C-alpha cells in the first residue's frame, strides 16, 4: 500500500538510504520516491491519501466513500451490507474507487459465494472449499461459512502460581474491538479491582478464593 503513494519530488531528499553491499565498497545514497514502511509519517500519509481519494470520489462512488472513511484500518477493509445486491454494488464501487488511486484490493473474503465469484482466485483469501475454516481480520477470528466471530485464549498458558501480575496479564489479552465480550471483560476488571484492594505485591500468591474466582 505504502509503495503506491508517490512522494512529491521536493520532499524526496528527506527520504534517503545509505547502503553498501560490503565494507570494501563505496557508500551509495538512494533517494526514495514513494512512502516507505517504517518511517514515522508513513501510516498517516497512507491514511490521509485514502481519505482524500474517498473525498474526491464521493459523488461517483457514494457507497464506497463511507466504507473508506469509517470501515478501513490501514490496508484492511471490513464492511458489509444488508442484502447481496447492495453488497455487490458496494464491492464494484470499492474496486473502482481504489483503482483510480492505483490501489488494488486483494485477500477478498465474504460469507457469500456470490460476492466472490467474479474475484480472481489469486485475490481471494477464502475459497469456500472444505479446507476453509478461520480467517484472521483486524485481530479477530472469523468463520465466513458460518458468519461467526471467534475469540481464542490459550488456557494452557496459565501458570501454577497465580499472582496479581498473572491475572492482569491474562485480562489484557482479551482483545475485543467490537465490544462483544464486554459482559465478560467487565467482570474481569472488577476482579482486578478487588485484588488491587487487597494491597498485595505483584508476584505474591493470591488468596485461595481469588484464585478460584480467576
Fraction of helical residues? 25-40%
Q: Please give the number of β-strands.
A: 7
Mean of all residue-level pLDDT scores: 88
Largest sheet: 3 strands, antiparallel
Return the structural class: alpha+beta
Indicate the low-confidence ranges by residue numbers: none
| Rg calc | 24 Å
Overall morphology: extended
Strand residue content: 5-15%
User: If strands are numbered along the chain, what order do they take across the biggest sheet?
Assistant: 5-6-7
Tally of helical runs: 7
What is the structure about, briefly put?
The chain has 214 residues and is α+β, with helices and mostly antiparallel strands.
Helices, strands, pairings?
Blueprint: E1 16-19, E2 28-31, H1 42-56, H2 64-70, E3 72-73, E4 76-77, H3 84-100, H4 113-116, E5 135-137, E6 140-143, E7 148-150, H5 164-171, H6 182-197, H7 208-213
GO biological process, one term: DNA biosynthetic process
Protein name: Integrase catalytic domain-containing protein
Amino acid at each position: 500500500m505504502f509503495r503506491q503513494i508517490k512522494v512529491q519530488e521536493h520532499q524526496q531528499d528527506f527520504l534517503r538510504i545509505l547502503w553498501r553491499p560490503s565494507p570494501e565498497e563505496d557508500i551509495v545514497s538512494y533517494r526514495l520516491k514513494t512512502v516507505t514502511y517504517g518511517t514515522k509519517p508513513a501510516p498517516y500519509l497512507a491514511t490521509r491519501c485514502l481519505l482524500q481519494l474517498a473525498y474526491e470520489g464521493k459523488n461517483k462512488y457514494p457507497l464506497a466513500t463511507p466504507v473508506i472513511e469509517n470501515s478501513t484500518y490501514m490496508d484492511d477493509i471490513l464492511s458489509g451490507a444488508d442484502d447481496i445486491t447492495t453488497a455487490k454494488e458496494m464491492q464494484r464501487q470499492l474496486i473502482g474507487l481504489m483503482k483510480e488511486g492505483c490501489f488494488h484490493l486483494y485477500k477478498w473474503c465474504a460469507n457469500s459465494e456470490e460476492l466472490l465469484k467474479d474475484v480472481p482466485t489469486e485475490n481471494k483469501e477464502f475459497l469456500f472449499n472444505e479446507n476453509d475454516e478461520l480467517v484472521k481480520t483486524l485481530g479477530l477470528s472469523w468463520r465466513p461459512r458460518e458468519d461467526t466471530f471467534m475469540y481464542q485464549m490459550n488456557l494452557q498458558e496459565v501458570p501454577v502460581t497465580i499472582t496479581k501480575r498473572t491475572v492482569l496479564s491474562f485480562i489484557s489479552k482479551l482483545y475485543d474491538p467490537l465490544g462483544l465480550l464486554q459482559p465478560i471483560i467487565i467482570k474481569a476488571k472488577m476482579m482486578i479491582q478487588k485484588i488491587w484492594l487487597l494491597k498485595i505485591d505483584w508476584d505474591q500468591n493470591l488468596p485461595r478464593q481469588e484464585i478460584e474466582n480467576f
